[in-house]
Design goal:
Elements: E1 7-15, E2 19-22, H1 23-30, H2 35-41, E3 45-48, H3 55-70, E4 75-81, H4 93-99, E5 107-111, H5 117-131, E6 136-145, E7 158-168, E8 173-183, E9 189-190, E10 199-200, H6 202-222, E11 233-236, H7 241-255, H8 281-284, H9 290-293, H10 299-302, H11 316-319, H12 326-337, E12 345-352, E13 356-364, H13 374-383, E14 385-386, H14 389-397, E15 406-407, E16 416-422, E17 425-430
Parallel strand pairs: 2-14, 4-5, 4-6, 11-12
Antiparallel strand pairs: 1-7, 1-8, 2-3, 6-7, 8-13, 9-10, 12-13, 15-16, 16-17
Helix pairs in contact: 3-4, 6-7
Bound molecules: 3-hydroxy-3-methylglutaryl-coenzyme A.
Length: 431
């Protein structure tokens, strides 16, 4: 039992980049069938940073509204999870600390283990608040997912940040104490210190992800965690939303439970806003990929149990992979689109290549729906400026060397920007 104090996520915000690449444009330029991305990967678009954006600017943009709402009193720790950090030594959170004028009486550190590390940060934050219930911890997950041009991973790129405030008596989610863990040394995906793009063995990464799910789920049961029937919604790390579907099929196989495996089918271009339907509409109105799921029309009455696979993948299919932030972007999508979550238990599966898997659970606090950010997230996704494929490829290829002083052009419409490099150090400013 957790004792008398409930601890968890009190506030959450999602931010993304200035630009977007539409996978229909990408498909056209590559001569690929667009359904390969929409249905095969479950992705419509990916966010792409402007030259004056990076993990710091997205992180600050995500955390700023949280600090505006509830101030910085009691925040003595910032944990910044990323695998696309900007320095080998200094924590990226230091720049966020400065941009947000946070108090100097704080510890600020960076945490790394591929896409998993935000979950480690969240659990560490719960530990700190358990010890000192008057304190609050700012956890930020921020990443830019970059693969080599013309590689299979390229359409699964993306960018995004999720900031979460962890406190006692949280307004959104109470994190439960039992969790299932799995670590295994595997070379499925990594990024050497001298490379700006990840190296990935795609097929191995998919099986390593599913093996970690098996291991974490088995450990959750061994630790006395809830049975699948006691979990109302399930969220997965989403490198692409079809992966969440694969994971759901896998969990259904592991548990013998009939779980819904439909993700929402893509909608194109300007109509992409329709990929954020109202709460009740998320399932019924949206076209689903029944061609690949093999589901029947009467599944609503008699079919598999709906654990929100479709609802929790709405943002991610427009963001692309946001690595550490991806699972929590899925959480934002769920909280913003499901109005029947009060008191419900959510299972969360976090995966980071390399690899670590963790399956943990949380209870949704009644009243959570008063804190929905659906409108602002949808506006931010819709406001992204599309890049032509030529412009995207030129931006992708542009790399800054720390050896040269540079002033970046002002492009982003976001609240913070990367101003340039001076004396090898990166500088940031309010936009
Ligand atoms: P690929 O070459 O696109 O694979 O690479 P594919 O040719 O097998 O196609 C993918 C799917 O599209 C297949 O469906 C095809 O049938 C389907 P599936 O068999 O998977 O169900 N398809 C179509 N469907 C409809 N209409 C069509 C059509 N054509 C094909 N016309 C791969 C896919 C995932 C390997 C690649 O994108 C990649 O390397 N991605 C990066 C790695 C990755 O995301 N791995 C996921 C697990 S590891 C992880 O999650 C960790 C990570 O986030 C990093 C971290 O932890 O830091 C990546």
């Amino acid at each position: 039992a957790a004792g008398t104090v409930s601890i968890g996520i009190d506030d959450i915000e999602l931010a993304t980049s200035h630009h977007v690449v539409r996978l229909d444009d990408f498909a056209e330029a590559n001569g690929t069938d667009p359904n390969k991305f929409r249905l095969g990967l479950g992705q419509d678009e990916f966010s792409f940073p402007a030259p004056d954006e990076d993990v710091v600017t997205m992180a600050a943009a995500a955390a700023a509204p949280i600090i505006q709402r509830s101030g910085s009193d009691g925040i003595r720790t910032m944990l910044f999870a990323t695998e696309s950090g900007i320095d080998q030594s200094k924590a990226a959170g230091m720049a966020v600390h400065s941009l947000l004028d946070l108090p100097s009486q704080m510890r600020v550190v960076e945490v790394k283990e591929a896409c998993y590390s935000a979950t480690a940060a969240l659990q560490a934050a719960v530990g700190i608040v358990t010890r000192s219930p008057g304190q609050r911890v700012l956890v930020i997950a921020s990443d830019v997912a970059r693969y080599a041009l013309d590689s299979p991973g390229e359409p699964t790129q993306g960018a995004g940040a999720v900031a979460m405030l962890v406190s006692a008596d949280p307004k959104l989610l109470e994190i439960e104490p039992v969790s299932g863990l799995n670590s295994a040394d595997v070379d499925d995906f990594w990024r050497p210190n001298d490379s700006t793009t990840a190296i990935v063995d795609g097929a191995l990464s998919v099986t390593a992800y599913l093996d970690a799910l098996t291991g974490a789920w088995t450990d959750l049961a061994a630790q006395g965690g809830p049975a699948i029937a006691e979990i109302d919604r399930v969220l997965y790390h989403q490198p692409f939303t079809k992966m969440a579907k694969k994971a759901q099929v896998h969990l259904a196989g592991l548990t013998g439970e009939d779980l819904d495996t439909e993700i929402v089918a893509g909608v194109s271009g300007a109509g992409a806003a329709a990929a954020s339907p109202g709460p009740a509409a998320a399932h019924s109105a949206a076209a689903t990929d029944s061609a690949t799921a093999g589901a029947s029309d009467n599944s609503v009455a008699t079919g598999p149990r709906d654990t929100a696979l479709a609802t929790s993948t709405l943002y991610n299919r427009r963001l692309g992979n946001s690595y550490t932030a991806s699972l929590y972007a899925g959480l934002c999508s769920l909280l913003d689109h499901d109005d029947d979550l009060a008191g419900k238990r959510i299972g969360l599966f976090s995966y980071g290549s390399g690899s670590v898997g963790e399956f943990f659970t949380a209870r949704v606090v009644p009243g959570y729906e008063q804190h929905s950010h659906r409108q602002s997230v949808t506006e931010a996704l819709d406001a992204r400026v599309p890049l032509s494929i030529d412009a995207y490829r030129a931006l992708h290829a542009a790399e800054l060397s720390s050896a040269e002083d540079v002033t970046t052009p002002k492009v982003t419409a976001g609240p913070f920007r990367f101003a340039g490099i001076r004396g090898g150090a990166r500088h940031y400013e309010r936009a």
